Amino acid sequence: MESYSLLYSSSHRTALLSGFQRLRSRGDMCDVVLEVGGVSFPCHRALLASSSEYFRALFGETTAERSARSVSLPALTPEGLDDVLNFLYSGWLGVSSATLPAVLEAARYLQVETAVALCERFVTDGLNADRCCRYADLAERHALPDALDAANRTIAAEMGTLLREGRGGLLRLNIRSLAAVLDADEVPGVKEAELVKLALDWLDENGPLPLLKSNLLLSRLRFGLVAPSDLAELSAAHRAMATPLVRSQVTRALEYHGSGSAQPIRQSRQSTLRAPPDRVLLVGGGSSPDWPERQMLAFDPRSRKFSPVGSGVPLRLRRHCVCSVGGFLFVIGGEEVSEGGEEAGKPVAGGATSRRAWRYDPRFDRWEAMASMLERRERFACCVAEDAIYAIGGRGARPGAGGSASVEFYEVAAGAWRRGTPMPRPLHGHACAALGGGIYVSGGRSGGGGDERDDRGESGRDLVFWDLGGGAWEKRASTAIGRFGHRLAAAGGFVYALLGMHEPFCDIERYDPRSDHWTRLRPLLAGSFDYGVATTASGNLLVFGGRRWSDGREVTARSVMEYDTKADLWREICQLPRPLAGTECTLLPLPD
Description:
Among the domains are: 191-258; 280-436 and 522-587, 6 Propeller (Neuraminidase), CATH 2.120.10. It is built from 15 helices and 32 strands. The longest helix is centred in the N-terminal third of the chain and has 17 residues, at 10-26. It has a four-stranded antiparallel β-sheet with strand order 6-5-4-32, with no helix packed on it. By secondary structure, it is of the alpha+beta class.
């Protein structure tokens, strides 16, 4: 069999369309005229039928239009048809924000799917606060799912701007988009009461709606994020709030508001902030270890930016502990630092070990005093397991006292502290992490010494585990380095031991509970202590600030370091707004 070659010319298709375009511009060989709004468009029947499913069916064998000299298209506008015909003859679609509705209408009507796809891409690429509502309505009307999803996300992201600069577009928004926005997990800078009012105003503007539709819309609101006084006012403002379904949701929200200490464990979608869940909250600390600040900072791992949060901690605290349960922040124990006078123009700090505990609700920027611990504690360890907060060891009120072996836990449901199984020996300056149904505690010291720079005593290498199912404390494999004032962090099924004070090396270690074995990992290049640590949603570790030695003197750092637990790699990702040491960190959803 004789061989042959199959050759392709990429320029032929372009030349073919260019030829048709020249014929059309001169009116040569045109065998059909499209009539729209008194404007005539001479065209070539074959090209139209080959490019559009609508024209292929219109010029079929059994239709009157097959041989008709002219065809009327009253549903279209001349501008829209002209742009689509130019696309069919050239492959180029001319479209702007002003002409988009007419072009999309013509492309969808004539079933030119490639032009529809280009319009959808134009919508997606051009979304902003000015256009998102209009584009959402176009995407919904013409069944453009990707563009509709993108427009709905943009409306949610820009809701604060839209509410401030004019609500007309929102009040004309199609119900599918409004429902999607009210269902969004992130609506930055907008209080829930504003969304409730928007939904009620939309019902007034577009109603009356069938009961099922209004219920479907209002059920997406999160009434637990609305203050009880505002909730009562909004409930009385509109008849749609009086339906059995909506009334039951409002009742549950009021019950949640009245549940007191049990609020953190009574969380539902209705009380969950519309905010990213992975914000890191930095509580306390300051540029001087002896004078902590009350301000709290939020860190967004995505933008790597910091912002102040709320009204600040009720007290100046150091060597305290923080944790989060159910979207609430808990601040526990530590040393209460008060201003003792003026010396050379600087505040003199004096303090007492505390057993007080505070709860912060970021939904309403509200602090509440909760039940105090059974013992005073500072330089202790704290973690959350099974909806309880565990306070472990630490030093008490007596100056120069050693560590304590006592353990207590806060039952969130009951709002009370209970005694737990004491540790095998007293400890302070130790660290803990909850993992696998239990709590790991490592390092620390037993002896006294009121000053953190006191070298008396040896930093511990022991690791003990407490099975919360009722077992006693059990010894596990020891760390390679004795650690004091260090941190433990759980990530990816492992426990990581980070730097502490008085350590000769900057090594970190990883503990595998399955093999009961520690592995040394890549060291942090600069030794540091008194820093804050958080575990990100991806399983990496973030280290904020701290103190270190530089040129023979102690300095407070501004660096934010990230440890990639999978790649065993450290890197500096950004800087704190100011030097910061002694801060405590936890993940907490926070409003913008």
